[in-house]
Task: inverse folding
């Protein structure tokens, strides 16, 4: 862990006053961080030296966010039960809302692969109560991981075996997909682990296996650094695991961590959403970046 953290760097609290902070994403073009305050139905934006402002005042209870290859914000909305993209002109495009003719549950977390495909998880958290969305009966038979081709609109369920799929990320070479299952939140003895999948020649996940278990708390969201280490949320801070699944250490955070992302001009600043707040700390590595597609 000594090579991953910088002893003289301290954890900074950049903002508080959220009800449940989630889904941080770094927008390199604007050098800012955006994240969701789900129960307050808003997406916030933090800029160095300027502070925080609402980016989207009515977010449809957005949760996970990511940035696509064109620098556009792509979000998972609980209330609309859809994945949406915010265009450069400010308009909103719905990318996915139904699968096999039925409404999605409540898209949760999201990533974009180098080929432009959008991958997201779809547990039922946003339709269980009115606190983070709108209570409703699920129409899907299960909680799946999906792959969306934004060019054709094809939506494919690529993982159907999980209880409550949540965070997800790719290895630096994009040959491996990681997805967390936080089913323990509503199932006694349920999973609180990160699964690993190999991606076959068609780019589809196979060879499912447990990569690491998270305790206390759950692996709500996580990111991968340039060396393939996993930086995961937990109940006692950010827990770090090697590519082989060995526990390396943790960064203590005074609130339960929900999610995190790498950012900053050098991609070496870790931005952390934790319950009511946004935190940041400089670390000794850079976040993994998408490969260039020729």
Result:
């Amino acid at each position: 862990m000594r090579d991953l953290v910088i002893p003289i760097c301290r954890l900074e609290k950049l903002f508080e006053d959220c009800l449940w902070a989630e889904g941080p994403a770094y927008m390199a073009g604007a050098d800012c961080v955006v994240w969701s305050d789900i129960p307050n139905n808003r997406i916030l934006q933090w800029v160095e030296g300027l502070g925080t402002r609402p980016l989207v005042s009515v977010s449809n209870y957005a949760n996970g966010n990511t940035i696509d290859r064109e620098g556009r914000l792509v979000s998972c909305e609980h209330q609309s039960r859809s994945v949406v993209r915010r265009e450069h002109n400010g308009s909103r495009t719905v990318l996915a809302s139904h699968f096999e003719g039925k409404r999605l549950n409540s898209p949760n977390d999201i990533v974009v692969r180098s080929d432009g495909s959008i991958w997201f998880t779809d547990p039922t958290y946003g339709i269980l109560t009115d606190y983070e969305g709108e209570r409703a009966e699920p129409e899907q038979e299960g909680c799946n991981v999906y792959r969306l081709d934004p060019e054709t609109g094809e939506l494919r369920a690529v993982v159907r075996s999980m209880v409550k799929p949540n965070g997800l990320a790719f290895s630096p070479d994009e040959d491996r997909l990681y997805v967390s299952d936080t089913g323990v939140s509503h199932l006694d003895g349920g999973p609180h682990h990160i699964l690993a999948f190999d991606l076959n020649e068609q780019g589809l996940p196979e060879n499912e296996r447990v990569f690491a278990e998270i305790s206390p708390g759950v692996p709500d969201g996580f990111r991968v650094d340039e060396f393939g280490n996993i930086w995961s949320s937990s109940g006692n801070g950010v827990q770090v695991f090697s590519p082989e699944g060995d526990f390396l250490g943790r960064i203590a955070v005074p609130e339960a961590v929900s999610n995190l992302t790498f950012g900053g001009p050098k991609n070496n600043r870790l931005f952390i959403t934790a319950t009511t707040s946004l935190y940041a700390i400089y670390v000794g590595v850079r976040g993994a970046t998408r490969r260039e597609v020729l």
Q: What stands out?
A: The chain is about 0% helix and 45% strand. Residues 12-282 form a domain with the Neuraminidase fold (CATH 2.120.10.30). The radius of gyration is 17 Å.
